[in-house]
Amino acid sequence: MARKDPVILIPIGFPTVHPGQDLSDVVAKAIQAENLNLRKGDVVAIASKVVSLCEKRIVKLHEVRVSARARRSAKRWEMDERLASLVLGEADTVLGGVKGFLLTIKDGILTANAGVDLKNSPPGTATLWPEKPDNSARRVREFLQRKYKTRLGVEIVDSRVTPLRLGTVGLAIGLSGFRPVQDERNSRDLYGRRVRVTQSNIADDLAASSHMLMGESKQRVGAVVLRNAPIRIESSGNSSQTKLNKARCLVTSNLTSVDG
To answer: Which fold would CATH assign to domain 58-128?
Structure first.
């Protein structure tokens, strides 16, 4: 069996990112500062907080108007009323909660607090997910492809919790330029049996690897370049190809939405 090249993860350090900076320029300059030349098939994983700051997806907490529903939710789940109000405004569906957090569906993703985060957000603010993360990834990819004259993939990475597991792992909330899911159906396992249902989410695997280096506090790793990743470059690749209707999902098909 031919030996494949190992996957290499290259952390990209970032200076402090300020609201309104040009995302593509910020990413390109950070890569250039590492004296790194991107190659065909590289995937650039970017921390979602970097994207949100550049796109001014931040909210001043003192300007948040708190609804009666938000007050009820905040009291029930012991949350800051302003945070609860932002979460309810961002969430497509609220499924429940625990102390300090609501379990939500946002853009087809099961996540805590609809992606609203106080951590690593400028003082007195909360940061929201990018409004259209696939578009953000596409713009960065097109910019970097022109700069390095090669074909690349880009994904936007945030963190999530996994049911009944402690700690956070990475999640690709947006992507562009590569096929995110590898279909294993009709292949054969080690014993010759036909695989019937398995598909591998390569995008989330790469996001989890990147998240390990990005960290959750003050690491300042704003992006990770993944080299030799097992991807297929496709200009049409996007995050919609990773999503599953909630009626077909083992978890969400057994959950019922609640009134915050």
So the answer is: CofE-like fold (3.90.1660)
With H, G, I as helix, E, B as strand and everything else as coil, classify residue 36.
coil
- Domain 1-49+129-255 classified CATH 3.30.1330.100? yes
For the chain, which residues make up each domain, given as ranges?
Answer: 1-49+129-255, 58-128
Phi, psi of 105 (to 5 degrees): -115, 125
Of 108, 112, 95, the C-alpha closest to 259 is 95
DSSP secondary structure, 225-239, as one string = EEES-S--EEEEEEG
What is the C-alpha to C-alpha distance for residues 249 and 260, in angstroms, rounded to an integer?
22
In order along its 260 residues, the chain shows pLDDT tens digits of 445 789 999 999 999 999 999 999 999 999 999 999 999 999 999 999 999 999 999 999 999 999 999 999 999 999 999 999 999 999 999 999 999 999 999 999 999 999 999 998 989 999 999 999 999 999 999 999 999 999 999 999 999 999 899 999 999 999 999 999 987 877 888 888 888 877 799 999 999 999 999 988 788 999 999 999 999 999 999 999 999 988 888 888 888 776 54
Look up tokens 């106080």; give the residue.
118
- Report strand pairing: 109-112 vs 8-13: unpaired
